[in-house]
Amino acid sequence: MGPRIGPVGIEPQVPDKDTKVMMGTEDTPGNKASPDSQDLRPSVFHNIKFFILCHSLLQLAQLMISGYLKSSISTVEKRFGLSSQTSGLLAAFNEVGNTALIVFVSYFGSRVHRPRLIGCGAIVVALAGLLMTLPHFISEPYRYDRTSPADAPQDFESSLCLPATSARALAHSNSSSCSSYTETQHLTVVGIMFVAQTLLGVGSVPIQPFGISYIDDFAHNNNSPLYLGILFAVTMMGPGMAFGLGGLMLRLYVDIDRMPEGGISLTSKDPRWVGAWWLGFLVSAAAVALAAVPYFFFPREMAKEKDELHFRQKVLAVVSKCEDLSSEQSPEGSPEKQDSPAQIAPDLTVTQFIKVFPRVLLRTLRHPIFLLVVLSQVCTSSMVAGMATFLPKFLERQFSVTAPYANMLIGCLTIPSAIVGIVVGGILVKRLHMGPMRCSALCLLGALLCLLFNLPLFFMGCPTHQIAGIIHQPRVQPRLELFPDCMEPCSCPSDDFNPVCDPSTHVEYLTPCHAGCTNKVVQESLDKSQVFYTNCSCVVGGGPVPAGSCESTCSHLVLPFMFLIGMGAAMASVTHTPSFMLILRGVKKEDKTLAVGIQFMLLRVLAWMPSPVIHGSAIDTTCVYWAQSCGRRAVCRYYDHDLLRNRFIGLQFFFKMGSLVCFALILAILRQQDKEEETKVVTCPGLQEQLLTPGPEKKSVESTM
Description:
By secondary structure, the protein is mainly α. The protein has three domains: 45-143 and 170-319, MFS general substrate transporter like domains (Growth Hormone, Chain: A); 352-456 and 559-596 and 641-677, Up-down Bundle (Growth Hormone, Chain: A), CATH 1.20.1250.20; 466-546, no CATH class. Helices cover 58% and strands 5% of the residues. The protein has 26 helices and eight strands. It has helices at residues 17-24, 48-71, 73-80, 84-92, 94-107, 114-138, 164-180, 183-203, 207-218, 224-235, 237-249, 277-292, 312-319, 321-329, 341-344, 350-365, 368-399, 403-431, 436-454, 558-574, 576-586, 592-608, 610-620, 641-683, 685-692, 696-703; strands at residues 466-467, 500-502, 507-509, 519-524, 529-534, 545-546, 623-629, 632-639. The strands form three sheets. It has a three-stranded mixed beta sheet, with no helix packed on it. Strands 4-5-6 form a three-stranded antiparallel beta sheet, with no helix packed on it. Helix 2 (48-71) crosses helix 17, helix 6 runs antiparallel to helix 12 (277-292) and helix 17 (368-399) runs antiparallel to helix 24 (641-683).
């Protein structure tokens, strides 16, 4: 049924341009284009191809801004003293507003001006991105060490071994500065970020469902799958661009807009380095705001596309996997399409919709195939959510790499591998004409290979640094298990952090004061300056010792580790399309639309919301030294690397095993159903003769085997 904008019987003398275009170029049965419409040249905003271009750019920018926090999660933790559990909860709040509104937005889809609502949602997303940067501007400049005068250049003097009188004066100065930093200020900063993440989820609600329905309504029926395939292919690059943007922005110092007069003495390799996390949100918000402008000029309804693309058949084999397969293998066919829920839902009132939804939900959840597929996708999504949120931090801590380098590895290896996996899975389903049985077998194989690639990760990691007073290696003499007596005269502050490394013993000290160092030397070079500490009473020979943490002994393992992560992501992504086809084949025709909505709602509630919090809590349990900020526990300084690896990879292994078990049960159920069908064929000769007759019916039966 073609779009309408007013009563057909009314014919004004001077119809507006939009009305003439839409009523003259409808491509519906029984309607022909009027001669006058052939002379009209509609604006670019009446072209569905231009809408697809705009929507691809908007979804790309929206996914980039929503994924940028994950690329800078460890930096935000260091800047504002957050635990991994709190940062995981912050990342999960993106789904709160989205989950609460997605079902009703899908219901009101055809009753509103969809392009304008998409534009309004994009503006909310851009404002949320700007709100995420507000904590940077209302907070005091970041101080990576303790200097007494507030306006003095930041240096390393306060971390030296000072006489008792100077240490007491410094402690008094630190306590006075701590009293000015109230808990209310901290809660305000954290609260702003939580509100911004919630608004980010609310604003993104109308973007994807309204855009997809708008394209499907006004594109040619044969072109719609191709357009949607192009849309998904472009938007899948959003998370990769988010990590790439994080890799670039975190190379810049956090206070690049308000650098101290004397400059800074840090490099990006220093554990106290904090990058310009806020700058990426500004760039992403600007991109979303620019992409939102065209939506306020698109009409509520436009002329349905008349021409089929000539190259559709060539590209369709690659990108339009699911749509064609569902139309080819659907036993119901297309004559009853008018009775689908997509056509019936607009005729329901809100009260009727609320009454119908619980019945459809219960009926759908009672279907074993649907329930098991959704549970498997919950496991896979939980794995992806935890990995996307904390993999950069895991790489930083486990292999002692910088935050920019970790983000570049994820953006260049893991995300492209996942995209390739989705494309390969769709091509296999399309080319091999897979029915439910083969789809479940492909999902089982992909989950099994993903699990196998996960096993070596338990043994690929670096040992924990030997830190004086905190951690000692089992095979090393325990003389460093407690803080050594050599630093007692220094009266070192317990909450200071400026690590130095003894290169001869590979022992790390919290500060030069804990190593008993009383002097500092700066060696200038062409590209950078290196800080050394001398006269260190706890170091054999008195030093010198370089500033910064000890170099990792196994940082070369990060590339093989990321290769296995990428292969596992590719194998898990192969199951995306066949598992989606199992859902389409596993529910009744009249429940398909709502079943897909229920699927995404359950994924958000059971996977995308709790998984970051679960992974963050597991990471916090491996911390061995917490920084204290005004009497409260802040960011973790040191982790037990073995525990961190076993618990983080162990959670991934648990979710992958759950997905594998679900797919194995699906395959067993389908085989049992297949045997029952064969028994019916044997006991019903008439049906057997019908199946042996060549024709379309036989192909339909064989395609589902």
